[in-house]
Amino acid sequence: MRLLSHLNQRTLRAVIAFVFSLFCVIAFGHFQPGFGKNEGVTNIFSPLSQPAQEIKETSYLVLVVCAVIFIIVGGLLVYSLVRFRHRAGDEATEPPQIYGSNQIELAWTVLPILIVFVLILVTSRTIADIQNRKPPRGAVQATVVGHQWWWEIRYPELGIVTANELHVPATTEDKRQPAFLNLQSADVAHSFWVPQLAGKTDVIPNRENRMWIEPTIPGTYLGNCAEYCGTQHARMLIRVVVHTPEEFDRWVREQQQPALMAADAAEGRKAFLANSCVNCHTVRGTTADGKFGPDLTHLMSRETLAAGAAPNTPENLRLWVRDPQRIKLGCLMPNMQMTDREVDQIVAYLQTLK
Ligand code: CUA
Predict the structure, then answer these.
(1) Cα of 121 to ligand 1 centre, how many Å?
(2) 235 Cα–ligand 1 center, Å
(3) N or C, which terminus of the chain has less Cβ within 10 Å?
(4) Domains of the chain with bracketed CATH
(5) HEC profile of the chain
(6) What is the pTM of this model?
(7) Atom of ligand 1 nearest to the CA of 234
(8) Per-residue pLDDT tens over the stretch 52-76
(9) pLDDT in tens, 193-234
């Protein structure tokens, strides 16, 4: 009897832990991230684009089938535990010894095979649907390159290079405009994941993976690198900014411009070009043409710094230029040991890169 109540307590604790973990998993996707403007919640169960919608429908089917199996198996298990539990006086008799039943064995072999077969068919149809999609005329094509720890984003046909914030037009009824992404890596394996728009796609060195998204609602969608890629994997965030078609055209025109040559930032520009910033960064229209770090031509058009590690404010920009390790420990931009004057000048210059 003591043993039984002891067991019950342990079982109760296990059940509470299970329910609590389940609650955490379900609730997790519903919390807003710590900072920044965010119209979307990163939750795979509230997709706002193809192919995420299609993936959700398939997932629900799999979840429902598994839930039904779980309830049946768990129910039978609980029923047997209760119905055939140990009773006083049981020691004297032996329960009936049953061996083999062709019907039952056939049933529990054939049924699961059928269920798995249905799931295989549905899943492969979804996968084929998503993978075989060909870019229609006028689709936006972007190349996304994963770096430790930021995303390079190129639009080869539009002549635009930016970082960490992927801009795409929304698809409308009369103009379908999916965006097709070529995913590449400059170093190690990463994974591109914006839960509300599409499933994860791994980003692998020496290989080009493809994916597409087709959002219909303008706004900012958050995502992150989903494959552990080193120290700052957690701060390798992605923003997908979905514009109305007109806004997207305006964004394209602005990004295509070379960097502004503001007269009042001449000192800062000189300091920037004289420092080793230029070995890693490009500012189109100047001699800075480094390829190792993000293109800074329109730095001020971006919402965040350091791949989403901090909002792009003047204070953060200053801190970032002064000592990047304070914002993103381990990032590959070193502290350049610049004087206060140099930092001020360079920050003033960067702020003109609209
Ligand atoms: Cu890139 Cu994790």
Answers:
(1) 32
(2) 8
(3) N
(4) 38-80+104-256 (2.60.40.420), 263-350 (2.60.40.420)
(5) CHHHHHHHHHHHHHHHHHHHHHHHHHHHCCCCCCCCCCCCCCCCCCCCEECHHHHHHHHHHHHHHHHHHHHHHHHHHHHHHHHCCCCCCHHHCCCCCCCCCHHHHHHHHHHHHHHHHHHHHHHHHHHHHHHCCCCCCCCEEEEEEEECCEEEEEECCCCEEEECEEEEECCCCCCCCCEEEEEEECCCCEEEECCCCCCCEEECECCCEEEEEEECCCEEEEEEECCCCCCCHHHCEEEEEEECHHHHHHHHHHHHCCCCCCHHHHHHHHHHHHCCHHHHCECCCCCCECCCCCCCCCHHHCCEECCCCEECCHHHHHHHHHCHHHHCCCCCCCCCCCCHHHHHHHHHHHCCCC
(6) 0.80
(7) 2
(8) 999 999 999 999 999 999 999 999 9
(9) 999 999 999 999 999 999 999 999 999 999 999 999 999 999
